[in-house]
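User: Um, any thoughts?
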Amino acid sequence: MKNEEDILRDIKNYVPEMTEGEDAISFCHKMQAGQTDISKPFNEDILAAATERAKNYIIKIEPNEDLGFVGHSMKFPTVFGDGKTKEECRNNVREAIVAAISTMIEMGREEFIPD
C-alpha cells in the first residue's frame, strides 16, 4: 500500500500542472474552478483492465425530469451518469465507472475497488 508521500508524487506525475509545494486540496479547488486541465489519458493496459472490471457492474437507471435518465451502480453509488435515453445514460455511467476504476488503479488503491 502506498504512503501519503507516494500518493502525492503520483498525483504530481499524473497532473503536471500541479506546482511544486502545492497541496492536492488546493489543486482540486483550482480544478473545480476550471483553472487547470487534467486531460492526460489513462495508460492503455490500465484502461483495458478497468473496462473489463466495469462490465461486471449492474447499473440502475431512473427517469429524471430535467436530464432524461440518471444512473449509477449499486457497488459504486457515488459514480453517476445521465443521458437523454437509457442507452446514453448506461454508456455514460459505464464510462464514469471505468474512469473511477482507472484512477484507483493508477493511484495504487485497487483494494478499494468494489468486486
Notes: The chain has a mean pLDDT of 79. DSSP finds four helices and three strands in the chain.
